[in-house]
Amino acid sequence: MNQILTQLADILEARKQTDPTVSYVAALYAQGPDAILQKIGEEATEVVIAGKNEQADQIIHETADLWFHNLVFLAQQGLHPDQVLTELASRCGQSGLIEKAARKT
After folding, report:
1. pLDDT in tens, 30-54
2. Which homologous superfamily is 2-103 in?
3. CB–CB of 71/36 below 8 Å?
């Protein structure tokens, strides 16, 4: 699974050098972080709608769109999905309530 995230991260990084008229991702980069964040919001809403409708195929499709746009944002910010995976790994075996409380300090 990590392999696909790394592969996508490499592609998204390469798109920074691509002409925005021929690449959707390059066009998002050219529009700046607000455009990417707007797409994340739209995709998150579509995940919620698919979930409320209990449509497994649409939940999968929309979640893939949401994850993709999050990866675009990470790349735009100079971050890598491995950093997120490291954060998730650090939370494994830890109570979510304890982890959340620790963030407030």
Report:
1. 999 999 999 999 999 999 999 999 9
2. MazG-like (1.10.287.1080)
3. no
